[in-house]
Amino acid sequence: MTARFKTIVITTLISFSAFAAVVYSSCNRDKCKTVVCAYGGVCNEGVCNCRPGYEGTNCETISRQKFLGNWSVFEKGSITQAAQYPISIIEGPKINDVLIKNFYNYFTTPIAGTVKNDTLFIPNQQYEGKVLFGIGYVYTSVTYGQYGAIDMKYEIVDTATQAVNDFGYNSKLDHSDPSRWNK
To answer: How far apart (Å, rounded) are the C-alpha atoms in residues 98 and 112?
Structure first.
């Protein structure tokens, strides 16, 4: 009777262990099994981690696309009068790069920028006797037609006179407003 009892107990334990293993593995299924990340994005715990230059639930959107096109600029600098002029933003050499034509209604050389999600970065660069840098945010929820707006904060420093024309970059110092770019 004891051998028979041991066999029943061992069989019960094995059955319970197998049942527990099946339940455990079914509860911890691979969350990335049905997720497809575009443009080389990698799934982690069911969420796509996108490569630089891409965004969206499945990395399906190229970030810079929302910045590309023709824009109307409305701005007043800390040392210049109010102005309105056109610019255009085109693709740059890398997937997260852009080039801005007619920046400041002055530069003949396109100004380099980098996009990360909804932010446009203009790194410190020097062209045509001026140093410039800035940062801007696109607002896709603000609609002008079917597009949006960019609040661009930047500074232009004249290398000859050292005069600084600020467009909201250091607004606490000079009470300047950001440049507004509308599509």
So the answer is: 6
**How far apart, in whole angstroms, are the C-alpha atoms of residue 116 and residue 121?**
8
Are 163 and 75 members of one domain? Answer: yes
Tell me the sheet residues that pair with 73.
85, 181
- Asked if 56 and 86 sit in the same domain, the reply is no
Domain count for the chain: 2
pTM, whole model, 2 decimals?
0.79
Q: 127-181: per-residue pLDDT in tens?
A: 999 999 999 999 866 555 455 899 999 999 999 999 999 999 999 999 999 999 9
Domain around 164: 68-182
Provide CB contacts within 8 A for 152, sequence distance 6+. 120, 134, 135, 136, 167, 168, 178, 179, 180, 181
